[in-house]
Amino acid sequence: MHWPSRSLSSPPLRLLRCPLRQPRHRRARLDRRCSTLPVDCWSALKYVNSSRRVADAMAALLDLTTLTSNALSKIAALQRCGPDLSLWGPPQTESNGYWSDPPAASAPQSGSSAPLPSSPPPARPPNATVCKTGSCDYLAVQEAVDAAPDLGSDRFVFHIKAGVYEETLAKRRPNQGAVATYDSASVAVLGDGFAARDLTFENKAGPSSHQAVAFRCDSDRSVLELVEFRGHQNTLYAHSLLQLYCRCRISGTLDFIFGNSAAVFDRCSIEVVPRAEGPAKAGSNPVAAHGRIDPAQATGFVFNGCPINGSADYLAAYRRKPGAHREYLGRPWKEYLRTVYVNCYMGEMVMPEGWLPWKGDFALSTLFYREYGSRGPGANPATRVKWRFQIPEEHVAFYSLENFIQGDEWVPSEQ
């Protein structure tokens, strides 16, 4: 990882300077993660072996997933209908007529960020410094991470000075082994309240290396501002819980923003890069693959005011042979995925149909793909696939920072 090579100047958030605020509703943490982890374990075990022990473990995980889904459905019914069991029923989603009544809030507007701060309080001194010159506490970022206290109750701040740090970073739990794509990340974060600013996370595996994650986030109430994520397939793994990405730059090729978190991408630049050298290696390039697996999960991706475009190399290849380079806003990785684009610019390479099926008609009747206020040469509601729609104007506020991830409760602010 390294510092951005070009400035992304705009007023900063109040990151790393204030205590972490706790959200009022802890149920959100339950329904955003409890089904995700058993399914991840089950998916990873498919590639281990065909022994009886593995088969028994997979069967137990399926039973656990079913029980968890039932519990989430009951919690959702209790929240919506109260204790009268006669009113309870299967969980509904936006796709079959259910819209939560959000608290009063204005619809998200491109370039606006009402709950986000406009001026920072005094900077908080770092707990550890890292640089290549030997004048800091540590020479390597992993050394500083290893020295940080486990399960600390306060924020631990690293100041990483300018330079390129070619490392694979994670604060590992004891005896935690590698698990497929999940463990391919150059940088992985787990502790609640992770915040980063003015960094670049990069996985240098080439476009032919399949899944290669640059950054994986399992941090609840994480905030990343003015951060670059560089890779090819599966660049950014927004795995679970509440996440905010503000004015970041995310580049990749295939499914390069994926996971099952509840994440808002506010004014982030989404940039497609060539899949491989030469137009003969072109293909279909979906941006997002959300992994919502249960209709009662309050997860999804919301892109607000984000330009969707291509790098100079990608656009040059696209213009030479447009039919070989097909860019889509997303495809259905899991059955109940939720992906929303609000007030986003769609570049010329975005296909008229907008969205790509995964396999046949999988998830087409249960997914939630929506747009509102799209503009640019790749934005034409009339040409979109029939299984996605525009968001009704009266419901756009549901996908604001305040309502979708309760950002006004936990995003750092002046004290």
Task: Give a description of the structure.
The protein has 415 residues and is of the alpha/beta class. The chain is 17% helix and 21% strand.
Secondary-structure map:
Blueprint: H1 27-33, H2 36-45, H3 52-81, E1 128-130, H4 141-147, E2 158-160, E3 169-170, E4 187-189, E5 195-197, E6 200-202, E7 215-217, E8 222-225, E9 228-230, E10 236-238, E11 242-246, E12 249-252, E13 257-259, E14 262-266, E15 269-272, E16 284-290, E17 300-304, E18 307-310, H5 312-320, E19 326-330, E20 338-342, E21 345-346, E22 368-372, E23 389-390, H6 401-404, H7 407-410
Parallel strand pairs: 1-2, 3-4, 4-7, 5-8, 6-9, 7-10, 8-11, 9-12, 10-13, 11-14, 12-15, 13-16, 14-17, 15-18, 16-19, 17-20, 18-21, 20-22, 22-23
Helix pairs in contact: 2-3
Biggest sheet strand line-up: 5-8-11-14-17-20-22-23
Principal-axes geometry comes out as: globular
Largest sheet: 8 strands, parallel
If helices are DSSP runs of H or I spanning 4 or more residues, what is the number of helices? 7
Strands, total number: 23
**Separation of the first and last Cα atoms:** 31 Å
Overall pLDDT level: 80
Helix content: 10-25%
| Cα Rg | 21 Å
Beta-strand residue percentage? 15-25%
The run of helices and strands is HHHEHEEEEEEEEEEEEEEEEEHEEEEEHH
The class by helix and strand makeup works out as alpha/beta
Low-confidence parts, pLDDT < 50 over ≥5 residues? 1-11, 16-28, 101-105, 110-122, 173-179
